Amino acid sequence: MAPIGEIDTFIVDVPTIRPHVLAMTTMRHQSIVLVRIRDADGIEGVGEGTTIGGLSYGEESPESIKLAIDTYIAPILKTCDPTRVGLAMATIGKSVAGNHIAKCAVETALLDMAGRRLGIPVSELIGGGRVRDRLPVAWTLASGDTGRDIEEAERVLTARRHRIFKLKIGKHAVRDDVAHVAEIKRAIGDRGSVRVDVNQHWSEAQADLGMRMLQDAGVDLVEQPVRRGDISAMARLSAKHIIPLMADEALHGPLDAFAIASRAGARIFAVKIAQSGGLLPAHAVATIAQAAGVGLYGGTMLEAGVGTAASAHLCATLPSLEWGTELFGPLLLTEEILAEPLRYADFELEVPDGPGLGVTLDADRVDFYRRDRVAPRLHAVSERS
Ligand SMILES: O=C(O)C[C@H]1C=CC(=O)O1
Ligand SMILES: [Mn+2]
């Protein structure tokens, strides 16, 4: 085996194309954590660990993801055989609890290296390999303004880029949020599927009212209406309403998947590689869902190109992906960090088919946007002094 030579982690801050208004925060930029691993033979892999809105979405922040990798994971990884991805991640897991997004970034980079070494796409290293080459992709309407959301929906429908729409609600009174959603659904009609994500902001009573009204408005699903730990409420809501409930924040890997599936807490799972702790545990989440008759959806943490490609490889291995995906992260950012962007066409994302993740970073752009960059002029000054 060629041992690991170098592990480089850095945060890249990229503006969003417009404010992205969620119940817990308004995003104006995305902070992407990238990890680049190189073995002694010079084979390189990249991974991404990205969350939403600093610490407002979950327990890991961009800064904590970088710190967990640099201080705790990297020293262990340097003792591991990088060709044995599952074993390396299990070794890390013995000394590092939680920190799923950091683990996802590292596992992604190891899988990218493994695929490049073997000359095959990452999807061929997961489960039984790839079963699809394209993935339906939703778009999130979250400008904070109903009229602007409708214009945006019209634009992407005409461009044949998206026909599944996720609306972020939970910030306003239930009836006001539902009125906003109903107006958008009326404008879109049968041309697209409209779903909502409440990001845990409703009580069970609010969810009861909201789910009934949303069903009447023609909405197709309600994502994580109540707080993530309340599987009992999720199960009661799932049993009571025809409109299906999708689990998102409640799902942090196979153990949660088993707990929710066995208590009938959700009829759909948003499978996220970041929240699950990597592509391999995310595949286990999907396997549990499929065994339990729970529908699948490919979720996102609004990752840029590397994380989105990694999620696409995982989703490409899932035999049934009834609810499609929302792997649109790079399209929400003003800057592309890949040398060649991912391809979106005919309402779908093409899963890259080159070795590893099948994507390459645009090194100059990444250097320009990385938070710890040292401007060339400052370099020159410090070298002189
Ligand atoms: O699902 C979430 O909660 C996070 C996210 C996914 C799409 C989007 O706009 O925000
Ligand atoms: Mn969600």
TrEMBL record:
This is Muconate/chloromuconate family cycloisomerase. Keywords: Aromatic hydrocarbons catabolism, Isomerase, Manganese, Metal-binding. PROSITE patterns: MR_MLE_2. It comes from the Bacteria. Residues 146-244 form the Mandelate racemase/muconate lactonizing enzyme C-terminal domain. Transmembrane segments: none annotated. PANTHER family: O-SUCCINYLBENZOATE SYNTHASE (PTHR48073:SF2), O-SUCCINYLBENZOATE SYNTHASE-RELATED (PTHR48073). Pathway: Aromatic compound metabolism. NCBIfam families: mucon_cyclo. Belongs to the mandelate racemase/muconate lactonizing enzyme family. Its cofactor is Mn(2+). SUPFAM superfamilies: Enolase C-terminal domain-like, Enolase N-terminal domain-like.
